[in-house]
């Protein structure tokens, strides 16, 4: 008996298949099933909802034209769900997102081709692929190395293959030879490719003209490499492939007027920010310690104190010197407003304020705050937490594990024979090896882990809610994969290994966990390097 779903596939135009795949791919940017993320996302922003509604509307028109009844019913069901979510004006429930996820996946199963597997996640990856339009030898070598970084790539063979794949999937970046599929054809192909994705150009020629470089810029090139190494290309795509942080901005609202506080909360929640309302000024420090806000919106006049007095108290805490404070008040006197900013405020908005204006100011301040904070707490070479901050993260993790009776492990990682790398290939190559390992750790470890550069070629990893056996297994997988990576130098390619020491938190060894992990690391070095040891109590 003929499969009815497969019959539908045979008569559907290819453009509908592309529309459905594009919808699922975009949906995967906004939501992933809980087993694929560390923190379940329980809402969609207004922008995300609007974009999904537009895509489903386009799909509806296409499907209606071909009179595919079964598919049309499924599209309408998704469309109704999205419109109902739009009307709710609240955070979505977890089960609502799961229901929508299920219905969108049903759409993809209906348009499966004969050679597709049954699970849409198998042919539409959670992360968008990087397209490699290169000569076969370099493409295969790069694709092989990208696997170690958990980066999905697709090798493109010719112009028609590129067109097919660029329509089939949203891609995160393109690496293309300027002479791909013919002299100058790579540049010509990118000129006709309208998708707004990063394009990285390469050439195998000894030199390249300024005209070629300008042409690459004109078609949106974000990088240009002459006879690049695999390591160079790996580093060039990392910033485009790594998923942007989905962590919402955290806003503390300090206002004795509950209605005004709710107005701010509603405006900010609609764009995906997380808020915490405080109506009693004397409780603000406790609330800040609990909530850890990225910005405070504060009224000027409250029972018991003014906003400027409260801001002064906040600024007395060293940890909050950089925390943006936005005054929101009906005070119209410019001198008083300027004085408020002099005494600790960063911005002053006068009530009533338009929701869009409020959102714009908060987003700008939070974004700048994250950038500045990263400059302070991160290592300039690797982008990992610096020595001081990784120790702070470890202390916080120990305190949390003790309070909640959870498992915790701490790992120290050291590149083997690193002095020999510097002596043989130079310090510039040594820095690239350090950068590669840091990138490797970031790609391989989930977001809840804290990773830092402890010093030199030594790294530290905090494993919250992780048993010793699990930490050992994860680090051993990373060690084995990293040992297969090829690093490039003028003298040729070479491989590097690392050793690792792991110590579990017992609830009592907070003051000694670093030296205990270091002792385990020393034991790994003593046993021949390129292995992992756990501290024995």
UniProtKB/TrEMBL annotation:
The record's section on SMART domains has:
GGDEF, REC
Report the NCBIfam families cross-referenced here: GGDEF (TIGR00254)
Q: Give me the reactions it catalyses.
A: 2 GTP = 3',3'-c-di-GMP + 2 diphosphate
What EC number(s) does this enzyme carry? Answer: 2.7.7.65
| Any GO MF annotation of the entry | diguanylate cyclase activity
Tell me where in this chain the Response regulatory domain is found.
250-366
Which UniProt keywords are given for this protein, alphabetically ordered?
A: Nucleotidyltransferase, Phosphoprotein, Transferase
Q: Fetch the InterPro entries from UniProt.
A: CheY-like_superfamily, Diguanylate_Cyclase, GGDEF_dom, Nucleotide_cyclase, Rev_trsase/Diguanyl_cyclase, Sig_transdc_resp-reg_receiver
Q: Which organism is it from?
A: Shewanella surugensis
User: What name does this protein carry?
Assistant: diguanylate cyclase
Keyword Signal among record annotations: no
- List membrane-spanning regions: none
Q: Where is the GGDEF domain?
A: 406-537
Q: Which residues carry this modification: 4-aspartylphosphate?
A: 299
């Amino acid at each position: 008996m003929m499969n009815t779903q497969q019959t539908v596939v045979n008569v559907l135009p290819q453009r509908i298949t592309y529309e459905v795949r594009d919808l699922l791919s975009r949906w995967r940017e906004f939501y992933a099933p809980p087993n694929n993320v560390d923190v379940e996302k329980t809402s969609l922003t207004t922008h995300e909802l609007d974009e999904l509604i537009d895509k489903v509307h386009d799909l509806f028109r296409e499907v209606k034209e071909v009179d595919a009844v079964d598919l049309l019913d499924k599209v309408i069901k998704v469309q109704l769900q999205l419109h109902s979510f739009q009307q709710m004006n609240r955070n979505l429930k977890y089960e609502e997102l799961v229901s929508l996820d299920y219905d969108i996946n049903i759409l993809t199963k209906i348009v499966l081709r004969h050679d597709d597997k049954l699970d849409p996640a198998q042919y539409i990856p959670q992360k968008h692929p990087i397209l490699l339009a290169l000569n076969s030898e370099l493409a295969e070598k790069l694709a092989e190395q990208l696997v170690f970084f958990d980066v999905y790539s697709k090798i493109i063979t010719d112009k028609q293959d590129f067109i097919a794949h660029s329509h089939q999937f949203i891609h995160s970046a393109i690496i293309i030879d300027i002479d791909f599929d013919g002299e100058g054809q790579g540049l010509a192909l990118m000129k006709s490719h309208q998708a707004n994705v990063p394009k990285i150009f390469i050439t195998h020629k000894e030199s390249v003209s300024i005209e070629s470089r300008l042409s690459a810029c004109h078609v949106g090139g974000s990088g240009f490499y002459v006879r690049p190494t695999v390591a160079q290309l790996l580093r060039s795509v990392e910033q485009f492939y790594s998923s942007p942080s989905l962590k919402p901005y955290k806003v503390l609202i300090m206002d004795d007027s509950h209605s005004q506080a709710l107005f701010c909360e509603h405006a900010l929640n609609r764009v995906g920010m997380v808020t915490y309302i405080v109506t009693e000024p004397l409780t603000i420090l406790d609330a800040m310690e609990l909530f850890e806000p990225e910005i405070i919106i504060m009224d000027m006049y409250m029972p018991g104190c003014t906003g400027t007095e409260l801001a002064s108290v906040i600024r007395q805490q060293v940890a909050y010197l950089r925390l943006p404070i936005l005054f929101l008040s009906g005070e119209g006197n410019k001198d008083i407003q300027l004085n408020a900013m002099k005494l600790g405020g960063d911005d002053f908005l006068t009530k009533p304020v338009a929701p869009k204006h409020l959102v714009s100011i908060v987003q700008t301040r939070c974004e700048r705050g994250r950038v500045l904070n990263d400059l302070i707490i991160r290592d300039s070479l690797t982008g990992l937490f610096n020595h001081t901050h990784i120790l702070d993260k470890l202390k916080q993790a120990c305190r949390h594990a003790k309070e909640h009776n959870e498992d915790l492990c701490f790992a120290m990682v050291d590149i083997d024979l690193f002095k020999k790398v510097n002596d043989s290939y130079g310090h510039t190559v040594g820095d690239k090896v350090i950068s590669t390992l840091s990138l490797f750790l970031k790609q391989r470890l989930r977001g809840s882990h804290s990773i830092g550069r402890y010093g030199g070629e030594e790294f530290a990893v905090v494993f919250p809610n992780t048993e010793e056996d699990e930490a050992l297994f994860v680090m051993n997988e990373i060690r084995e994969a990293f040992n297969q990576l090829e690093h490039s130098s003028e003298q040729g390619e070479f491989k590097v290994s690392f050793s690792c020491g792991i110590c579990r938190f017992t609830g009592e060894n907070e003051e000694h966990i670093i030296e205990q992990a270091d002792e385990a690391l020393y034991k790994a070095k003593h046993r021949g390097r390129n292995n992992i040891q756990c501290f024995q109590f």
